[in-house]
Input
Amino acid sequence: MKLWGLWAILVWLIAGCSAGGEKQPFELSGVPAAFPLPDSIRFMTEEAKARALLGRTLFYDPALSASGRFSCASCHVPSLAFAGGMDRNVGENSGRGRRNTPALFNLWWQSHFFADGGIPRLSEVTLAPMDNAHELNLPIDTLVRKLRRIPAYQQAFQSVFQREPDPFGVTRALMWFQLSLISANSPFDRWYYEKDQMALSASAKRGYALFISERTNCSSCHGPPFFTDGLFYSIGHENLNEPDTGRARISMSVQDVGKFKTPSLRNLAFSGPYMHDGGLQSLEEVLAYYNRGGDIHPNKDARIKVLGLKEAELSDLKNFLLSLSDTSFTKHPAYRPLGYRD
Output
């Protein structure tokens, strides 16, 4: 990743101009009118736009880490649907993340964040990696003092929030940038919402019919439009070398051991490896896991059972899942600042 001049970006931000024809992060790309996007995001106010733009600058700035080497984008890579691209990402102090880095998009409707649901509000999400010694390792109070010593950030926060950098401004700016990350322009969306019959192959259409059928019951947790219900289940998968109690870490209930939040199936072509620990490398592995009924676990959901799908059916399911991939999202220049390269 190439770095760019912080001062130049912030001068551009404060001036409110669009240097070099650059798009702003709230400019949507091909989102269908019928996609259930709230007006507060589809038609962002000027205040929200300014916050999102400042949040984008913060998101890509390695100054948010203790060593000045890592940014939010170090683990949440735009070309990977803001996922990490490996089983666990590495941050400060050469530490591996506790879990596989989640992709970031369509976050406005979620009521819990992280695989265990430990954070209830999007505005608080960034506090966790800031505090984590193996991620950014720069707690919010320390970060704020650092930003107050940077004249460009002083000017930017005065322009956007009418106050100097503080925890409220930092968390809200990052929140609004993440709220602007909208992915709903996949081949499936063009077929489902815009009735473009040519958008999906015959195989993908068969895969979708199988996906929503009682035979697989996939859509009971992964139904459209978000392809996640945001709830917590055990599918039997666990990493015996690095045990993780999942939702029980938050609820303190033995009944929640091994339960994790249902991830969205959008953008799977970019966001592997899969599962909370990144333990399955390919979609073929994921489909094979479900097809054989998963592994044995005392809290495994009753819907996880042997499916007995044939190779052709697995291929159809895979083609449907790939049709949820939104390349206009992963390539959208609005979601990355001037000079950024993956």
Notes: The two ends are 5 Å apart (CA to CA). Residues 1-5, 14-20 have pLDDT under 50 and may be disordered.
